[in-house]
Amino acid sequence: MAASHEHPDLVQRHGRVVILVEDDAGLRAALERMLRTAGFEAQAYADAEAALVDRTVDWADCMIIDVGLPALSGFDLLQRLRDRGVTAPAVVISAQDEQRLRREAERRGVTHFLAKPFLGSALLRLLDGVIGNRAAGSGIRLS
C-alpha cells in the first residue's frame, strides 16, 4: 500500500476510503449514497473486472464485496486483490446466508460476512469498527 503523501488526493480522506463492488445497480447506488453521506469516500464498481483495473482499490481502507458477482466471484476478486498486495479489510455481503459461504469467507480471510438484507446503520457501525480496528492493529472476526 502506498503512503498517502504519494497520493495527495487521499491525504485528507485517509482512513475513510471504502471500495464497494455490487452488481445490483439499485443497491450499489443506495449503498454508495449512504457511504458518502456518512463521510466515507466511496468508490463503487458493478463487477470485479472494473474494480481490478482501477488502482484506487490498492489504497482502500476497507472493501465491501458482494459474493455473487457476474463472471468473477467476490471471493475470486478478493483473492486477486490479495495476490497483488491489497491488505484492506474485506466485508463480504451476500443474499445467501449459508454456512458453506461463511466457511469460505473465513478461509479467505474475510473480516466480516453480512447477509442481505441488512440495515444501513449496521453496515456503518461495522465499517467504523473495522476501520478503527485496522488503525489500532486489531484482528479479524466474522459477524
Describe the 3D structure.
There is one protein chain. The protein has 143 residues and is of the alpha/beta class. The protein has one domain: Rossmann fold. The chain contains 6 helices and 5 strands. A 5-stranded parallel β-sheet has the order 2-1-3-4-5, with helices on both faces. The longest helix has 17 residues. It is globular, with a radius of gyration of 14 Å. The two termini are 26 Å apart. 32% of the residues are buried. The N terminus and C terminus are likely disordered.
How many helices in DSSP terms? 6
Gap between N and C termini, in Å? Answer: 26 Å
Give, in spatial order, the strands making up the sheet with the most strands.
2-1-3-4-5
The proportion of residues forming helix, as a percent range, comes to 40-55%
CATH homologous superfamily - what is it? Response regulator
Count the domains: 1
Molecular shape: globular
Q: Hey, roughly how much beta strand do the residues contain? A: 15-25%
- What pattern of helices and strands is seen along the backbone? HEHEHEHEHEH
CATH class bucket: Alpha Beta
- Number of E strands: 5
Q: Estimate the mean pLDDT confidence.
A: 84
Remind me, CATH topology? Rossmann fold
What is the architecture at the second tier of CATH? 3-Layer(aba) Sandwich
| Low-confidence blocks of residues | 1-14, 137-143
